[in-house]
Amino acid sequence: MDTTEAAPTAGPDGRRNGALRRAARELALIAALFLAYKIGRVAAAGRAPTAVLNGERVWRWERLLHLPGETTLQQPLLAHELLVRLANEYYAYVHFPATILCLVWLYVRHPAHYRWARRLLATLTAAALVLHFLVPLAPPRLTGRTGMIDTASRFGPTVYGAPEADTVSNQYAAMPSLHVGWALVVGLVLVRATAGRLRWLWLAHPLATLLVVVATGNHYWLDCLVAAALLGVLLAVLPRPGSGRPPVAAAVPDGMARTGRHVPPLRGQRGRPGASLPDRTRPAGRWQRAARR
After folding, report:
1. pLDDT higher at 29 or 164
2. DSSP string spanning 127-155?
3. Contact indicator for 180, 219 with CB cutoff of 8 Å
4. CA atoms of 136 and 46, how far apart (whole Å)
5. Given this model, what pLDDT does residue 186 score?
6. pLDDT at residue 268 tops 80
7. Is the pLDDT assigned to residue 95 strictly greater than 70?
8. DSSP one-letter code for 66
9. How many CB atoms lie within 10 A of CB 48?
10. Is the pLDDT of residue 258 over 50?
11. What are residue 119's phi and psi, to 5 degrees?
């Protein structure tokens, strides 16, 4: 009698518990990423004079590079209060929710693309935090030489308090723009994960984010360019879904390559290479002609 026990198979409850554990682990990783982002920004605070000086330098560098002034985007917007409020609300309420919704959808529908997006976001954020420490930068709204105003404090809604009393966020960490960097990750990953011509509309999110962060005085053009450059490096270095080597083809039995099915070798010719199918390219021999007669 066979006394061996069959290996237990995971039932519906086991699969459900495993899925919940994986989801909880991913949520913990995302929360840790967000916490590191906040801690890093706060830890770099207290360097306002250096940040303002760097802001003036960035402003001069942009003029040397012949980049358009940020005021050329903000001034026309100030003539329409509704548009200003919409830009402020986009900056305040779209950044984190859009990123989280994208990650949740990818986790459920496209796990490989989810892991790619998570890796891109984590690496980009870590690189940005290093630059926040090395190059404290006041945004245009806090650099008097730019002539830009803080649209959020004037028209609302605002997500920041007074810079000297803000203990939640570091307002002098404008270089690079993680708003633009994260939006680019979301747009590019969604374009790759979906199909059809309309998938390119996902790029409207990073484009809208770029215009909003500049028009509201929260970032310079150069902040956005540096974020895009960092992401470009990461895209070239980190592997993408489906970019691995193709699987090695299994050995095909003799006689199957052309017919799609295995043809046994002819009787008396076992072991001879190429003997599975009669060779019709050679002229018939004497014994073959005799057999046909």
Report:
1. 29
2. HHHHHHHHS-B--GGG-GGG----HHHHH
3. yes
4. 10
5. 97
6. no
7. yes
8. T
9. 15
10. no
11. -65, -40
Query: CA 218 to CA 151: how far, in whole Å?
Result: 9
Answer for the pair 239, 119: CB distance below 8 angstroms, yes or no: no
Find where tokens 């962060």 sit.
Answer: 213
Find the largest Cα–Cα distance for the chain.
106
**Which distant-in-sequence residues (6+ apart) come within 8 Å of 70 by Cβ?**
140, 146, 148, 214, 215, 217, 220, 221
Contact indicator for 263, 277 with CB cutoff of 8 Å: yes
Give me 222's structure tokens: 């150069």
Q: Is the CB of residue 172 less than 8 Å from the CB of residue 119?
A: no
| Contact between residue 163 and residue 48 where contact means Cβ atoms under 8 Å apart | yes
Closest listed residue to residue 227, CA positions, set 210, 211, 215: 210
pLDDT score of 171: 84
Residue 202 structure tokens: 């996902």
The closest alpha carbon to 30, from 182, 238, 174, belongs to 182
d(CA 6, CA 9): 9
Phi and psi at residue 79, in whole multiples of 5°? Answer: -75, -10
Predicted pLDDT of residue 249: 46
pTM check: above 0.70? yes
Check whether 208 has a pLDDT greater than 90. Answer: yes
Q: What are the tokens at 244?
A: 């691995």
* Percent of the chain topping pLDDT 90: 53
Of the candidates 37, 33, 164, 183, which has an alpha carbon nearest to the alpha carbon of residue 99? Answer: 183
Q: Are 163 and 142 in contact (CB under 8 A)?
A: yes
DSSP per position, 210-266: HHHHHHTTS--HHHHHHHHHHHHHHHHHSPPTT-SPPPPPPPPPTT-TTTSS--PPP
Q: Which two tokens stand for residue 103?
A: 């990650």
